Amino acid sequence: MSLPVPTLMGIINVTPDSFSDGGRFASRDHALAHGLRLMEEGAHVLDIGGESTRPGAAPVSENEEMDRVLPVIEALVPHLNDGVRLSIDTRKPRVAEAAIGAGAHIWNDVTALEFAPDSLKMAARLGVPVILMHARGTPETMQDDPHYDDVVSEVRDYLAARVAACEAAGIPRDRLIVDPGIGFGKTVEHNVALIRHMAAFTDLGCEVMLGASRKRFIASLDRGGDADERLGGSLAAVIAAWRQGASWFRVHDVAATRQALAVTKALETRS
Predict the structure, then answer these.
(1) DSSP character for 143?
(2) Which residues, at least 6 apart from 156, have a Cβ–Cβ distance to it below 8 Å?
(3) What is the DSSP string of 18-76?
(4) Helix pair angle (28-41, 254-269), 10° resolution
(5) How far apart are CA 59 and CA 51, in angstroms?
(6) Which of 35, 57, 129, 194 could pair with 139 in a Cys bridge, judged by C-beta atoms 3.0 to 4.6 Å apart?
(7) In this structure, what DSSP letter does residue 116 have?
(8) Nearest 5°: phi and psi at 89?
(9) Contact 211, 246 (CB under 8 A)
């Protein structure tokens, strides 16, 4: 799959309880309008999710998740242009299968294909790029006192093992993107360490993604504030990760991120 570098993934949460947009795009029409706006801002991928994975979130059924995401995918497909791709953000292989059948191109799995016994087999059969994210615990429990002896090494070793499992299942490494899972079973200090050392993941032979947009650790490092008040910290995390070799960025604020990266690249390459 050929996409520009850096690759900007715009977030479309078709859920009533997402941590950032609080259900603003839960309807098909609102999600479609938001997706069109993200494309205008320069998104290369639109990531559509129908189950919140924020800390404390409760699971939803396969049928409910599909009822949320499939109409949005079907509505967006006719509007795709300039090589924009759709991604399905789900843990469930049956939801991924239905979404790919409806026109999505990428499977973004916060459990790195571990949620269901047939996730690896399904991903191999679908033949699409897969994003493997590290998470410790479930959304209901992941922020209950997470502990690591060495968070960077442990997350890297986990992702290396998942890449190996994918290859053994017939999924080639060049179809894999790895994500250290900022905020998924990590403290503020863990998140900072992972962003500071994103280069540790670049030797896995996969593109590396950062998903730090508007997350709670940003407020913890500054003066608090709601999710929509965390743009500055989100951009700082993106720039730091870009300098460490990350090339995919899952963000709410596509236009601002595009601009920040463009200026960063210009400053670093011009004498």
Answers:
(1) T
(2) 180, 200, 201, 204
(3) -TTTTTTT-SHHHHHHHHHHHHHHT-SEEEEESS--STTPPP--HHHHHHHHHHHHHHH
(4) 20
(5) 7
(6) 57
(7) S
(8) -95, 95
(9) no
Domain ranges of the chain: 7-269
Phi-psi region of 242 (alpha: psi -120 to 50; beta: other; left: phi over 0): alpha
Catalytically active residues are 215, 250
Cα dist from 67 to 14, 21, 43, 95, 125, whole Å:
10, 19, 24, 10, 23
Handedness of CA 34, 40, 41, 47 (dihedral sign): positive
Q: Which CATH class is domain 7-269?
A: alpha beta
Q: Measured between alpha carbons, how far is 144 from 83 in angstroms, rounded to an integer?
A: 41
C-beta of residue 111 within 8 angstroms of C-beta of residue 135: yes
Q: pLDDT digit string (tens) for 138-193?
A: 777 778 889 999 999 999 999 999 999 999 999 999 999 999 999 999 999 999 99
Give start and end residues of each alpha helix (H) in the chain: 28-41, 62-76, 93-102, 119-126, 151-168, 188-196, 216-221, 231-243, 254-269
- Under 8 Å between Cβ of 32 and 73: no
